[in-house]
Amino acid sequence: YSPALVAKRAVEFLSATNDKPFFLYVAFNAPHFPLQGPEDGDRQITLREWATGNRATYVKMVEALDGYV
Fold first, then answer.
1. CB neighbour burial string for 51-68, b if at least 16 within 10 angstroms, e if fewer
2. pTM
3. Which helix (H) or strand (E) holds 66?
4. Using one digit for the tens of pLDDT, what is the confidence trace for 1-58?
5. Is residue 60 within 8 Å of 39, Cβ to Cβ?
6. 61 contacts 38 by C-beta, under 8 angstroms
7. Helix (H) or strand (E) holding 63
8. Could you tell me if 68 and 28 are in contact, meaning their C-beta atoms sit under 8 angstroms apart?
């Protein structure tokens, strides 16, 4: 799940900077396309699902993003 990887790398960067000044811009792709939730794993998403998704998946994506932030 790419937002999890982005968050992990951001935390690694923050941990490594110590007391040096820095600017960190973290751009998550969630909750934009593809609508794939954090628990979907390797599930194959059809073209139709990629473009439309569903509300339950969108909610899971937003909740996960809130946790990463």
1. eebeeebeebbeebbeeb
2. 0.74
3. helix 55-68
4. 889 999 999 999 988 887 888 889 999 988 887 777 788 777 777 777 666 778 888 8
5. yes
6. yes
7. helix 55-68
8. yes
